[in-house]
Amino acid sequence: MAPQPPLRVLCLAGFRQSERGFREKTGALRKALRGRAELVCLSGPHPVPEAAGPEPDSGPCAPEEQPRGWWFSEAAAVFSALEEPTVCRGLEEALETVAQAVAQQGPFDGLLGFSQGAALAALVCALGQAGDARFPLPRFIILISGFCPRGRGLKEHILRAPMSVPSLHVFGDTDRVIPSHESVQLASQFPGAITLNHSGGHFIPATASQRQAYLKFLDQFAE
After folding, report:
1. Does the pLDDT at position 66 exceed 90?
2. 183 domain-assigned
3. What are the φ/ψ torsions at residue 208 (nearest 5 degrees)?
4. Catalytic one of 115, 145, 167, 183
5. Which end of the chain is more exposed for a tag (fewer CB within 10 A), N or C?
6. Is the pLDDT of residue 61 over 60?
């Protein structure tokens, strides 16, 4: 019997991460999933100036790379996950960036998002479930340090109806950027959600036991 092709997963980076930097941050996970899943990384469309500051634990970008984000909380190029913004500047461009990746590099079996990328992945699922043709529903979603996006009715959009997509939610007990209760609230919108909490902070965990949790979740989607 021929081996099954790996699952293809579109991975959305966090705020102030570059595509290359996010590939490096997912390196341990990528190695663990080799042969099971292909991770295709995507960063936000908007350059983020140095003054905006990094997400803690996101690490610096390579000198030749511009850090990027999916949207900003205010007219200035800043982002706060936990405050209600007056605007969500650049969100439509962010959604279009994901739509183009789906159309040009897909199909994808699943979505993975980290931090701001996780919030965007959840929004993409909500839009797909509501009938947005740009976003066919994935077979599964993995949300790491996720939260319900705030502003312009976005949180209400996520909370409008239970999500029908199988999900794995990963979060740190000592995450000071996205407190664990934010990730738990997002997970509550996915009936049957699987949670993986760890003792660390704002990063993508990939110890031996955590790798097994990812693999166990993904194995149910192997054809």
Report:
1. no
2. yes
3. -60, -45
4. 115
5. N
6. no
